[in-house]
Amino acid sequence: MGSGSFGARLAAFVAVAVFVAGLSAVVLWTREQARRLDEAVTSQVGFVLSEAKTSLETQLNLGLALGDLPQVDVLLARARAALPGIQSVAVLDEAGTILFSTNAVEVGEALPPRAASASDGPESDVSGFWSEERGAERVYGVGLATSFDTAAGSVLVRMPSGAMAEPMRHYALTLSIGAVLIVLPLALVGWLAGLGIAAGPRRSLAELAAALEGLGEGATAVAAPSAARIDTRSTAQALGLPAPAFADAVRRRLTILDEAEREVARLDELA
Questions:
Q1: What angle (nearest 5°) sits at the alpha carbon of residue 104, between those of residues 103 and 110?
Q2: Is residue 144 within a helix (H) or strand (E), and if so which, with residue range?
Q3: pTM higher than 0.70, yes or no?
Q4: Taking a C-beta distance cutoff of 8 angstroms, is the pair 172, 30 a contact?
Q5: Cβ contacts of 134 within 8 Å, gap of 6 or more
Q6: What's the CATH number where 17 sits?
Q7: What is the span of the domain harbouring residue 69?
Q8: 20: enclosing H helix or E strand
Q9: Do the Cβ atoms of 72 and 60 come closer than 8 Å?
Q10: What is the pLDDT of residues 155-201, one digit of tens each?
Q11: Does residue 100 form part of some domain?
Q12: Which residues cross the membrane (predicted)?
């Protein structure tokens, strides 16, 4: 295999290894960032809903009906402004009908009941914080309870499922560009280092191959074996190969063959 072929193969191997390593790092970091972003959004939404819940339940404890509470629209508008990407913030009654919403079109809409979750506690439907996917939406909710611990309704935050997709795409693109700028120099350095490390063994292998090929040169190999033997031994020791024993065995057999040929030639002359 020529040096050009070896260099091309090494370059291809280094390129593939560095590409796989860079891609794996980008995927892992992007997933971790997506998880952290989801946790941050959930935490912020939970805080917004807890504030709305506290304010609404304070008024409910005064004996007012949920549909008659004052200043609910102002409260919901303030909650919606607390987090970008929110589609709407709504207050629902016990039957799941929207009484108030930052999106006026939603008022009067009846939402399907939430599917029970195995992680829900006994009081989850009354006051627990929850979230779930509903089609193209991510819905976060918290129950409203009266002073008698009876369910009065709920507050919902509705967000598009892909609300966080654009920030994650931007993050992944930025990370990919950074990875390319890092892995290209690393790949070049790795390729040059590989060529440098392999230069010694390749040179030793070439010398060993030349020495073994010279075993078949007949008289020349027999007349002056010492230099070739020393050459072969030093090269083989560097590579950790049992080449000297093999070379000595071949030389002995070549010597026997040469002597046999000379004997045959002598007998032919005598005949």
A1: 90
A2: strand 137-145
A3: no
A4: yes
A5: 112
A6: 3.30.450.20
A7: 6-111+126-168
A8: helix 3-60
A9: no
A10: 999 888 766 667 777 778 887 888 778 878 877 887 777 767 766 66
A11: yes
A12: 6-29, 171-193
